[in-house]
Specification:
The protein is of the alpha+beta class. The protein is built from twelve helices and 23 strands. It has three domains: 110 residues, Multidrug-efflux Transporter Regulator, Chain: A, Domain 2 (Orthogonal Bundle); 151 residues, Multidrug-efflux Transporter 1 Regulator Bmrr, Chain A; 163 residues, Regulatory factor, effector binding domain (Multidrug-efflux Transporter 1 Regulator Bmrr, Chain A), CATH 3.20.80.
Length: 441
Amino acid sequence: MFKIGDFSKLAQVSVKTLRYYAELGLLKPAWIDRFTSYRYYTPEQLPRLNRILALKDLGFSLDQIAALLRKELPAAELRGMLRMKAAELEQLVQAEQARLARIETRLQQIDHEGALPPYEVVLKSLQRQRILGLRQTVPIYGGIFALFEQLSAHLHTHAVESDEAHPYLIIYYDQEYREHSVDVEVAAMLARPIPAGPGMTVWTLPAVETAACTVHHGRLEDLSHAYNALLPWIEQNGYRITGPNCEIYLRGPESASAQSEVIAEVLFPVERKPVSVYISYLEKEKNTMQPMIVTKPAFSVVGLKYRGKNENQEIAAMWGIANARAEEIVAAAEGLGAAYGICRDMEADGVFAYLAGLEIKAIREIPEGMERWDVPEQTYAVFPCKLATIGEAYRYAFEEWLPQSGYQRGDGPDFEYYDYTFNPADANNSQLYVYIPVVKA
């Protein structure tokens, strides 16, 4: 599972666009950590995003795309629509030829959804390397080639030629994929010192203890396939990215043409993910790392509602008030059950709704200032934890367990369940349970 910045690099779509698609309901995050507001996506969401991009590139409005996706448009029918549009474009003036090429590219992506080309990923260390670099913020990615022209001209005046031993490279400093204003450095590895040109710097690229690498051999426009292989591998093998990614060009890029043939090594500096605090807790408590999968019948909860971002631990304060007012629910309700903290999906601006209260079978009158929430029957993955590890329990569930479990997040709210053994007066030492709705993937 990827944070939104890493997913934007994988998908080659900006974070701003991903947030907008989530707001419209076109592509919601697989999970939003309400403790940090981080958004997370999965590789399985790429086919849907490809379909959105294909339809958008053809001129469909986002409202039209939303309607098409709700109809679960088959891939065959979608390909047919794209080819009809391509036939129309063939009759337009030469200015429309670029659009036709993009449509054909999107068709190929749809044909290959879920079947990425084979790339061998390896781990290796990188030694310190002296480079001549030219770093700028370019308006669009195509501006990178203008920087290469400046760099190449300066190297030529000093009789320095790029070769396989001293290749060109590109370093990307943005933490997300950006469509505009790209912070990038083009550079050449140096075999001997030379003076820097205007805007250039001679400096030493630091050593990297561990880098995940793969090699792309083919058209420059297909370089994204290497990223599609590399980023999931990093996630699936328990690593995390620790710095800017880099492309080392063993051949090219000699021109700005997307059809240029290149040999490029794509690499990310990485490190092993630290052992989760939650896993340490499970080991200490001698609990299994596999959650229980249970089907819980529909239930209702009456309690106090919070709406916000919980930036100042407002939920903890509200629980103190809810506990003090519990007798009001007891006096009005029938068939009382355990305590629940129910959390609904986070909104686009990071705001979410949360209800702290007691399960009831029926209630004569809802106490002033409280609400009743009804939760439908659902299958859940249940994670034991304590208040000190609740945030880690969520992160473990969504970042580690869920991507490898054969399940995906289901519809409906997640919640905390506090049974009769939970003691609010000794909350840090009392066990609670996190319930996350799931369905078979």
